[in-house]
Structure prediction request, 328 residues.
Amino acid sequence: MNNYLLKTANLRKYYSEEGRLSFFSIGSKKAMVRALENVDLHIHKNEVLGLVGESGCGKSTLGRTIIRLEEPTSGEIFFENKNITRLSQEELKPLRKKMQIIFQDPASSLNPRKTVFDIISQPLKVHGLAHTKAEMVEGVADLLEMVGLEKDHMERFPHQFSGGQRQRICIARAISLRPIFLVADEVVSALDVSIQSQILNLLMLLKNDLNLSILFISHDLSVIRQISDRVAVMYLGGIMEMAPSEILFSSPRHPYTQALISAIPIPDVEIGWSPVILQGETPSPSQRPKGCPFHPRCLRSFDRCHQEGVELLMISENHFVACHLYRV
Prediction:
């Protein structure tokens, strides 16, 4: 793990129909929503790992769980080679400065009754990074400048900004503690295309300036391809394939990845576009199929897929696929 900033091992997150399950209730007979199932992934230092998949596949749950905003049902989470899975909230507090999250909807994640100064200065106060009003003003002004906003914006309220500006405020709050790891959860999905590009460029600039590692969550493959060093493809709570971005988009191996990438429109009318059409609907996480979760919709499934699950298999250096087709 020496080269990893973050790593998960067999990470699971289950919910019951009546609410969240505790760590010890994994064996309960109640109906469970299996939001995450045996997730193994790793993120290197100063790397962007793109996480892509259909809505409801568990992407946001994974992002929230690995920074312990959600409690894992089982499995392990390592951050800087330290197992943080069972740390108490008090023990986690020093680590909160190192790992932060940017939420999908800036309008709902910003308190409408607080000014930008109050919103961004709050983490500085909580973690003791600024002690006087003057220090807070200086710190907030510097953060606003870093994200492309003006100093006089700090006295305004969130409703006085556009969607792109509100997302910049959220980014300023997230980097206020100088973290080394960010979860960016669908941060451009609610923005116009032109504004998306500006926010993505800002994130890449901050990544290089602050030496950030980023888990970038999105359902948009074109955005994932633009920003990611490596990509993990998620389906029904599990990782189906993980590989460097250029390899995954040029030579996808898992049938689900192939179907996703084939659905990307081709602008050149002279090139034939023939997307793979998946049959049926994505199963409910509370009624997960036995064996490979994708087999009911897979055009290449065989008997073994119905009976056995399969872990991520290394098929070449740094390229992993959860599929029996590649098992030796």
Notes: Confidence is low (pLDDT under 50) at residues 20-25. The longest strand covers residues 4-16. The first helix runs from residue 59 to 66.
